[in-house]
Design brief:
This protein is α/β, with parallel strands linked by helices. It is built from 15 helices and 16 strands. A five-stranded mixed β-sheet has the order 6-5-4-7-11, with helices on both faces. Strands 14-13-12-15-16 form a five-stranded mixed β-sheet, sandwiched between helices. The radius of gyration is 23 Å and the shape is globular. The chain starts with 18 loop residues before the first helix and ends with a helix. The N terminus is likely disordered. The structure holds zinc ion.
Length: about 425
């Protein structure tokens, strides 16, 4: 990745041991990236992909095999001579412990060095604020790291995706309104507890990158990932890379004011997009509908457990003809379409992936309304593809895992 300037500590020694430090040179990074991107792949193809001489490839491959990072996985098709030996990442080279703090729960995922999910854990937020979030975060981290599976491999470090502003030097969360966090020393907390390096990135950037490589954005080089969840924000991929902005603050659209007389936002301003279209605001509206008996259809669907009310119930009621629930989803789609039109017009990007808990739970009703609303907001000449996320929740974990693999091993995706 270009523009990555977060810092992490040194990699803890593990099976691949001390040789890692020596491996961090440019050719190794290029070669690893080619192997991760094209595995299983032959030495000849690696030479062609990287531009490195066959003799260098042979030497570097031997070095990487000795370090345990890669392995031979069988033979490929012969093009006349001997069958070529195929090379692939060794998934057992090390694990990344990832945490995603966005939405309504903390999700954890242990990924192997080939970036495959091997173990997961999660904890719905029960409380917010520094002490409460710290306690819940450490509980999920311990659940992953204390698991017998994890003990069999070296853990290279933590990757954490965060719904808020990050201090790149200290690894602290400067501000995450929905979690009621300010100056939260995230990296320090994890390092004190586990002694492992910690890499932190904004949640929407991680999700955007994962969608580009594994999800709905594989066919394009430029895209916007729009998160519609507890918070609202976006991540930008340009030329296949994350665009973070000068201060790592691109995409924080949740706090633009769309209604000057609107409700108070957690950030202290009035009428922010997030205060109107974020998940808590929608859930409040839905709860009011039940409380005041304004939508018998919704009440029927939720019955017998009103406490279990979710946005999926609202979507189901809308589909069954509830005008008031349809209106709620149309309103949401309108607000999000407006935000998308701002971003896509300014950046001239025409591929938008929409993900997050709200988008997921409102489902096709929401996406139909979103397409209709976009027709009102987009410039006449600007065709914009809007597609649902391909990975849903795993996007955050898979994306932060990619970034952490880059940070720890120099692998670019
Ligand atoms: Zn706000």
């Amino acid at each position: 990745m270009n523009q990555i300037n977060h810092t992490a500590g040194t990699t803890r020694g593990g099976r691949q041991g001390q040789s890692l430090e020596g491996l961090r040179n440019q050719n190794i990074g290029v070669l690893l990236s080619a192997i991760w991107g094209h595995a299983p792949v032959s030495r000849a193809d690696l030479s062609r992909l990287t531009g490195l001489a066959p003799s260098s490839i042979t030497r570097l491959i031997r070095e990487l095999e000795e370090s345990g990072l890669i392995q031979e996985t069988g033979k490929g098709e012969s093009s006349g001579g001997r069958q070529p030996v195929l090379i692939a990442p060794n998934p057992n080279a090390g694990l990344i412990a990832n945490l995603d703090m966005s939405g309504s729960k903390i999700s954890g995922g242990i990924f192997d060095a080939a970036n495959q999910l091997r173990l997961s854990a999660e904890h719905p937020y029960t409380e917010f604020g520094g002490e409460a979030v710290k306690r819940q975060l450490l509980a999920v981290a311990h659940e992953m790291l204390d698991d017998p599976f994890t003990h069999d491999y070296p853990v290279l470090g933590f990757g954490i995706s965060v719904p808020g502003e990050i201090d790149m030097d200290t690894g602290a969360i400067v501000e995450a309104y929905n979690l009621r966090l300010r100056d939260f020393p995230l990296r320090q907390i994890l390092m004190d507890e586990f002694g492992l390096p910690v890499y932190i990135e904004v949640d929407t950037y991680a999700a955007a990158l994962a969608e580009k490589h594994y999800g709905a954005g594989q066919s394009v080089d430029d895209l916007i990932y729009m998160l519609v969840s507890t918070g609202i924000g976006f991540g930008i991929i340009m030329n296949g890379k994350i665009y973070q902005g000068k201060a790592g603050m691109s995409g924080f659209i949740g706090h633009i004011i769309i209604d000057r007389n609107g409700p108070m936002c957690l950030c202290g301003k009035r009428g922010c997009l997030e205060a109107i279209a974020g998940r808590p605001a929608l859930m409040n509206s839905a709860r009011r509908l039940l409380k005041y008996g304004r939508d018998p259809l919704l009440a029927d669907i939720v019955d017998p457990d009103p406490a279990a009310l979710s946005l999926e119930h609202v979507a189901a009621a809308a589909e069954m003809g509830s005008a008031i629930c349809q209106e709620m989803i149309l309103g949401e789609a309108d607000d999000i379409a407006y935000a998308i039109s701002l971003v896509t017009t300014i950046l001239d990007i025409n591929f938008v992936i929409v993900g997050g808990e709200v988008a997921q739970q409102f489902g096709s009703v929401f996406f139909d309304a979103l397409h209709a609303a976009m027709d009102r907001y987009r410039r006449a000449q600007h065709t914009i593809d809007i597609v649902p996320a391909g990975l849903e929740r795993e996007a955050f974990l898979k994306g932060i895992s990619m970034l952490t693999l880059h940070e720890m091993l120099g692998i670019s995706f």
